[in-house]
Amino acid sequence: MNKQVRIKINNSDYLMYDDITVLMACRNAGIKIPTLCYLEGVSQRASCGLCVVEVKGAKSLMRACVTNIREGIEIFTNTKRVRQARKTNLELLLANHPRNCLQCNKNMKCELQSMADELDVRECNYPNIRKRKVPVDNTSHSLFRDHEKCILCARCVEVCSQVQTVDAIEIAGRGMDAHVTTFFDRGLGNSECVNCGQCLLVCPTGALMAKSEVDSVWSEIDNPEKFVIIQTAPAIRAAIGEEFGFPPGTGTTGKLVAALKKMSFDRVFDTQFSADLTIIEEGNELIERIKTGGTLPMITSCSPGWIRFAEKFYPGVLDHISSCKSPQQMFGSVAKTYYARKLKIDPRKISVISVMPCTAKKFEARRPEMTSAFEYWKKELNLKDKDSFPDVDYVLTTREMADMIREAGIDFVNLSGERFDSPLGMSTGAATIFGATGGVMEAALRTAYFELTGSRLPKLELEEVRGLKGIKEASLDIKGKRINVAVSHGLKNARQLLRQIKEGKSPYHFIEIMTCPGGCIGGGGQPIPAGYEILKKRIGALYQEDQEMQIRQSHENPAVMELYENFLEKPLGKMSHKLLHTNYTGKGIYI
Ligand code: SF4
Ligand code: SF4
Ligand code: SF4
Hints:
The chain is an alpha/beta fold. It has three domains: about 5-95, Ubiquitin-like (UB roll) (Roll); about 130-210, Alpha-Beta Plaits; about 215-580, Rossmann fold (3-Layer(aba) Sandwich). Helices cover about 35% and strands about 15% of the residues. The strands form five sheets. A five-stranded mixed β-sheet has the order 2-1-5-3-4, sandwiched between helices. The chain binds iron/sulfur cluster (3 copies).
């Protein structure tokens, strides 16, 4: 039972519950304690040594992140000894650091850099003592790790283990040989890593970064032979404004479109178009599975980190995963088939660029299954296997897109809003909420209800699957049949639902699993920082946009209906299966 204790911080009295650390007590009192390793609720390794404080009666300084408060404790956070010790500890970190900020991708966004500024550390009086030089880990499609810039704070290790339960990385070696590594030092790309990028969201330095595809995208734009199409995912519009100083939760869809048009993309389209398409295919697949006694529960397939997680850790549930490709990939195959035909452009001249909140999408675009347009054109254009081309050519994160907008000299803040191009830019409110945890489920149920009953859900908002609770459940009566659904975000939460399936005890018909906390809105490619309060605000912006849209159900998207009429024929039809569906087997990508 926690009890209240009287404590003193810098000679002021406070009454606080005794189950907290000195760090939390100081924060509660509005006093900032510097740290480069602590992450609330996730990491408490006390490795950086910056949070030291003096405690009356104690000989040595105490690390505030691992010292609990107690009755009568007297804490001093700003003595000469404390300030000097923090500076010394930071200098020791910098001694082993390259300090070439101008060449670093994290320049001006780096916690280590700002900490040096904050603690007024201008020079380093210690020699570089780290003996072992570890080469950059370039093995992953999504991330790279530069060990030289790593300060061994272990935040990445703890997030991978505690939030994602992937445990792909650990700190190996001792003392001066210590470094973050994977099993047998094989590199991230040859490990259990699912490419989610949650580790890089918390890295305080430039040691962990997304693999940039910015240069390749500029080359495509500059190539007069190429017809360059860009698609932007739902979660981008609610977050990219943060890169330009807008408060979290500011919707900037129109400004984003205007910026992309100024950058000379030939068409600016919306992944929400293919999110609507996904809902129609996925909704029909669910209905078919229920009617024909197919494998249930069916699990969503939009999140490539989750797919990789299932392939690595739960191969037994692969049959449960919807055969629908993700909206990113559906868009790529539709752009290079239907739209290429419509415009009479050779699909090999089309370059499809994605802006995604997600580092795993970079990996997804390189999967061998994602070449449906090539298969479609193979015979007609007399193509050989060596001529194969991907449905999606390059994937940019939200941060990379913001970098490009800045590099192009575009005044994002003062742009007037513009609209997406037609037809692949047309979408509904159901597609907008895809970016939030529970959004795919809510969108799918809006359509599945209509397909089964012929009428609109009495209330489109399904509150039970909204919010940031780890696992959410809902139960709907559709034409006398009870449909049970569940939603999880963050891979640790997914394990609970997957365990039920493995044990044959799952009560659900349909499950949404998203890799990242908060869903795509909290993806590894999104602006940093991305704490829970920020996620809530971004999610709010998506629900707001859904409310304001004229059409809020995927099956009412007129451009998608036209696509069926003129090209795909019907949901789950032959052409849909060829272009929009796949079966994940895990083959060819296991280590
Ligand atoms: S990680 Fe930070 S401090 Fe280090 S070089 Fe990059 S910007 Fe500078
Ligand atoms: S990308 Fe995700 S799975 Fe890979 S190391 Fe980072 S946190 Fe772990
Ligand atoms: S890679 Fe980044 S988060 Fe991981 S230990 Fe190094 S500095 Fe910390």
